[in-house]
């Protein structure tokens, strides 16, 4: 019994040490990735071509909460992102650059709007796309920017994780992780690497106020651009 119990204790101790070692490893990896991302050379963006898809537009307002309209915020963040990327030598195009949509009359109008965006992305000649959205749910407590990807292309997960790392403090306390989603039409249909970013929850009053703030939008744009530069600096993004 005693031997068993000592062994049991030893095994538990070893198991604990094992878990602790894994946890330290994960933290260390995250720490290195964060500092690499924060010190990334933005010149990595030079010559890269990116297409930005500001979600919704025209007759499709997207989510509306706290006096804010998703289609306006997505276009504004997208514009700031374009400026940051272009200032570092990237070539940027948009699926829409005004308050417009591609809805068709009758059934399937929304689907056709999305398919037109897919077509624009595919024919843009860009190597990567970013779709920009805002989240909305029941319950005002939920917050945090989150990046979605489709695993059909191996490059999408590391891209989404880099992007999520860039957005880890947006807003402070954001614990969300990059998430795979097989249901998002644009992620399903486009054949170049890309992600969809839910920049934050319009249904959370504090986050809504941030999303409406041009300074916060600028910070989001800069973090997304940093994450892109980091992604391009990794072998997998080359
Ligand atoms: Zn949306």
UniProtKB/TrEMBL annotation:
Biological process (GO), any one: peptidoglycan catabolic process
Cited SMART domains: Ami_3
Superkingdom to which the source organism belongs: Bacteria
CDD domains: MurNAc-LAA
Residues in MurNAc-LAA domain copies: 118-229
Database matches in InterPro entries: MurNAc-LAA_cat (IPR002508), N-acetylmuramoyl_amidase_3 (IPR050695)
Gene source species: Dendrosporobacter quercicolus
Pfam families: Amidase_3 (PF01520)
Family annotation (SUPFAM superfamilies): Zn-dependent exopeptidases (SSF53187)
Protein's UniProt name: N-acetylmuramoyl-L-alanine amidase
